[in-house]
Amino acid sequence: MSRRVSRLFLLLSLSVIISCSSVSGLFRKDSSPDSSVYDRYASRYFYMEGVLKSNEGKYDAGMDLTSHALQLDTLSSAAYYNMAQYFLATGNVDKSEQFLKRAINMEPENYWYQQFLATVYTARRKTAEAISQYEQMMVKFPGRSELLIVLANLYDETGQYEKELRLLERYARLEDVEEEFKGRRFLCYLFLNEMDSAYYEVDNPGQMIRLLLEGVANISGVETVLKFSSTVAKHRPDIYEPYYYSAIIHNIKDDTAKVFSTLDEGIGKVSDRDGIAQLYSLKGQFYYSNGMTDQAFICYDSALVYNPDETVSLNNYAYFLSLQGRNLEQALAMSARTLEKEPLNATYLDTYAWILFKLQRYEEALSYLEKALRYMDEDNADIYEHYGDVLYMCGEKEKALENWHRAVQLNSESTTIERKIKEEKYLE
Q1: Which CATH architecture group holds 126-203?
Q2: Which residues have a Cβ under 8 Å from the Cβ of 365 and sit 6 or more positions away?
């Protein structure tokens, strides 16, 4: 092909490219005073070829073509932008930021250039710079509501909850999604210690106390949950959860007096019978753990008056009776009722088996413990120890030792397990 034909082909290709308004709009509108018309057209051609190569995954070739486009026209903002993308993709974030800023200087009103710079800042963990960039973009591009969420996320990461709240509220008004961000607004108010506002953001405040308590990792978090729980009790004194979970928190803090006073307050204020049963059941559990056995059993009796079918109360009461060796037939009957409701519950199966063991019905106990082992959600040291105890009484000493060792590996809190292994026999 002659040189003239090659040049003509190039110019024809360029004429097709620059006729597309979407493409030509990517480039500066003013001419570089030092560039010929031919150089500018050639620059655009090489730029587009570079984009095509990059889209094919041929990044080195794409960069070479784009770099050549910049040599022909140093004022091509689109070429600088493309180079910035290439450098970010290949891990050279310094170069990416450098080329991107040059593109923005040439075309400061280009939203995508600004957005990409904010992305680069975020990738480099330049959070302050990213926040500043998005704040400027909010002013420059007020119609871009998605910026509100991105910036709200950055405010959340940096603990700027008041600013986050304002953006979430603004976005909710613009997009008519008031309900969508209730959870985030709740957490903002919680961290700002505005507990009344937090309360009004949740549909089920009692359940929220439980979820918060399950998620805390330190004493500071526990105190926050306690404050919210107290606020819920102020607004809804008739539901059991704020008293129930506040008592658990007071127990974590070793404030025994506060544990019982909180539960007593709830028993006097809660309106539904199941809620009162829950409070009596928890009170019984705390009494038992503090060595006050008779008071514990009185509380369990009260719990079952208010809700005779409450399985946790039935199971705990039955198990504690078996540990004391008291009223074993009554304990067995209560345990059987839990299995009627939840026949595959490993904890309830273990309790029933243990009562059978106490009644010296070892073969039956073995059957229920084997079933408990099959349906455990996770390994349980108590169940393995009980299984070992039953195996020993059934004459299977070696298997008993294996299961006692397994219980120790699971950090059993048993006071006798080490002696059982050492003496190779069952001990009370």
Answers
A1: Alpha Horseshoe (1.25)
A2: 353, 354, 356, 357, 390
Same CATH fold, 206-308 and 126-203?
Answer: yes
Are the C-beta atoms of residues 199 and 228 closer than 8 Å to each other?
yes
* Distance separating alpha carbons of residues 248 and 127, to the nearest angstrom: 39
Angle separating helix axes 146-157 and 127-140, nearest 10 degrees: 150
Contact between residue 191 and residue 207 where contact means Cβ atoms under 8 Å apart: no
Environment class of 293 (CB within 10 Å of its CB; exposed 0-12, middle 13-18, buried 19+): middle
Task: Provide the pLDDT for residue 63.
Answer: 67
Cα-based distances in Å from 172 to 164, 181, 182, 199: 12, 8, 10, 19
Helix-helix angle 161-175:182-191, to 10 degrees: 160
Fold of the CATH domain 206-308? 1.25.40
CB contact at 8 A, 213 and 248: yes
pLDDT in tens, 61-85: 766 676 666 666 555 677 778 778 7
The tokens for 118 are: 């904010």
